[in-house]
Each structure stands twice: as C-alpha cells, then as structure tokens.
Amino acid sequence: MSDFYKVLGVAMDATADDVKRAYRKLAMEHHPDRNNGDKKAEEKFKEITEAYEVLRDPQQRAAYDRYGEAGVRGASRSGPQMHHVDLSEALNIFMRDFGGLGGFDAFFGGGQRQQRDRRRGQDIKVTLRLTLAEVATGTSKTVKIKGLNPCPQCAGTGARKGTKVQACRTCGGAGEVRRTAQSLFGPLVSIGVCPTCEGEGTVISDPCPECRGDGRVRAEKTVQVDVPAGVADHHYLTLRGHGVPGPRNGPTGDLIAVLEIEDDPRFERHEEDLIYDQALSFSQAALGAEVEVPTPFGDTVLKVPHGTQTGTVFRLKGKGLPRVGNSGKGDLHVRVHVWTPVKLTPEQERLLKEMAPHEGQPPSDVRKFWNQIKAAFGGGA
C-alpha cells in the first residue's frame, strides 16, 4: 500500500500548488519519453500520477486522509472512485494539466509560448458541525477565517504606492524562458519557468513597505456558508474565490467546508432513510394503539394495529431526510419492540395469571418469523 504523500515527496499539510509542483517535477523526470521506454520509469510515472490524482482533488484527499486508500477505492455515494491508472491514462492526466503550460511537449518544441498565470492563492479548509435537524432543513453557518487580504496600501500590486510593477527583462514578460540545445534528433527546445520573476512575468523594483512586495496583509474575515438540506457526513461544499488571494493580485483560492454530522441517538441513518426503535407495551401491541414517534421535523402519530409483533417495521413515507440536490424525501422506518416489564405489581401479576390460560400458543416456526424480519431490512437467513 503506497503512501501518496511520500510518493510525491510532500508533507500532509502541503497546499494544492505544492502537490502540483512536486508532481510536475517527478513526472518530467520519469516520463517514458525521456527514459526510452524504461519499464521502471513507466511504473514510477504511473505511481506518481495515481498519487497526484487523489491529492489534487479536495474530496478524494479528505477521504484518503481519513481512511487511506480504502477511502478512495471503496464504495462511495459522493464522488468518483480512484483506480489504478494505466500508462495511457497517466499520459493523458499529465498532458491535461501541463500540456499547454511548458509541459513535456514543450521540451521537444511542441508547446506554445503562453503567458503564465500568476500563482493562485491557497484553498482554506474548515469543518462545519451539523445536527440532524440542521441536515433536515438546511442551514447557514458563519465562519471566521484568519488569513490574508489584498494590501490596501498598494491595492494588491506589491509595488509602493505611486510606482508600478515592471515587465521582467529576463523573459520579456512571458514568465517563461526558452533554451535550445543540439541532440541526435536535431534542436532540442526546453521551456521553463523564468528564474527571475518565477513565472509571473513582472518584477517589483520598489516594494510596498506595508506588505513587503507580497501584495497581501494578514486579516480576519467572516464568511457565510449556506448548507443545503440532506447533506451527509464528510460531504464538502466549495465556495469559489473565498480562500486566500494570490500574491500580487493573483487568483484567489477557494473555501472548502467539510461537513461533520453529529449522531442523533434517536435515529439510525441510511442515506435519506431513518430507522427509529419504538417500544410498545404488551397491551398496546395486542390491542393496537396510537403512539407519538419523532421525526427530523417534529413528532408525528403512528397507528399501531392490534396483534403487532416484535420486529414489525412500519414505513412512514416522506418522513426521512431530504434528498440533496433532488426533490422528495426519504422514509422513516419505525421498528417495534414489545416491552416486557421487569417488575410486576401484585395487581399486574394477578391479572396476567388470569389471562395466561386464554393467551393461545406462540408461532412454532420461530426461525421463519425472524427471517421475515431480517428480509424487511435486506438481510439474509
């Protein structure tokens, strides 16, 4: 079993940019086209691509951090599953993310010279704890975030007020430098990040004294997160552009809210459906009764017919949780248990003794009875 963080050589708290840079460096080193089809390099290329595909995706990364590989290879309701990639998939993933930005094709002159975007700001991950009642109705949560904001003195440019950033003289503002070398196949052209401006295309000769040229200052902000009804544990919500702003007016990262649902001791949850265990006295089960049972939206009345047996399940349609992103609700399944008193008063004991000769015989095939109960919950014999 691989440790994806060790495979890419990054820490567990590495940012998305750190993961991307580490993968790009390793992918360029182990790419099959640079290793004459060497099988070891090919296997390493596939391994680091698998690790990158998981760690680049916030949802899969959260599942991996909590459960390891089982969290991204097992059954899930909330997202696509990871699988072992073959060489074709690995190459497509590499070209998808780096083919047009000085990726491997650029080493052989196939890439186009493009303006590199400024570095994107980091994503911020927060945890929102919800009750089952909040899941049922949806809710809004307010979170305070300590991070960075654009510097008010330089308006986020990083340059002292009254001055401007200048185009990088090394790369002419492109953010990339091109080098040509001769090889057996002719001119070999490589395109890399400009070492002077680190790919931004601009330099600052007179930095802002407030932010020291970064374009950002420490700040605290409040963000409202609207949570839809019906969410499940470890679902996450992404608020685009509410993360950390990039340096010098770079693109802003996202706010990722990971949801944790508190257990409600009254219910057992199965996606949108809920199970509630209801105790009945012998007389209620034998004679029938109306009992109040809880739902996520308040109490409701359940009519119990006479002769109800332990293990009987009543389905209250539409009394479960909303289906997230869809109309309709799940169901509430009320599972009945006939309660036997531990201690009897003298009067209770006298009445039960009088009734005993008139009770009748219990069912002889108890196994068949319990198999029917198991079948109601999808179990086997």
Structure description:
Among the domains are: 1-98, Helix Hairpins (Orthogonal Bundle); 267-376, Urease metallochaperone UreE, N-terminal domain (HSP40/DNAj peptide-binding domain, Sandwich). 27% of the residues lie in helices and 25% in strands. It has eleven helices and 15 strands. Strands 10-11-15-14 form a four-stranded mixed β-sheet. Strands 1-9-8 form a three-stranded mixed β-sheet. Helix 2 (16-30) packs antiparallel against helix 3. Mean pLDDT is 83; it is low at 75-82 and 100-117.
- Kindly report how far apart the N and C termini lie: 36 Å
Query: Which class of the domain at 267-376 in CATH terms?
Result: Mainly Beta
Task: Count every helix, treating DSSP H or I runs of 4 or more residues as helices.
Answer: 11
Share of helix among residues?
25-40%
User: What's the total count of β strands?
Assistant: 15
State the CATH topology of the domain at 267-376.
HSP40/DNAj peptide-binding domain
Low-confidence stretches: 75-82, 100-117
The name of the CATH superfamily of the domain at 267-376 reads Urease metallochaperone UreE, N-terminal domain
Short descriptors:
Helix Hairpins; HSP40/DNAj peptide-binding domain; single chain; four-stranded mixed β-sheet; three-stranded mixed β-sheet; 11 helices; 381 residues; alpha+beta
Give a concise summary.
This protein is an alpha+beta fold and 381 residues long. It has helices at 4-8, 16-30, 39-55, 58-67, 69-73, 87-98, 104-107, 132-137, 282-287, 346-355, 366-376, and strands at residues 124-130, 139-150, 166-167, 176-183, 186-193, 202-203, 216-227, 236-239, 255-261, 267-270, 273-280, 289-293, 300-304, 313-316, 332-338. Among the domains are: 1-98, Helix Hairpins, CATH 1.10.287; 267-376, HSP40/DNAj peptide-binding domain.
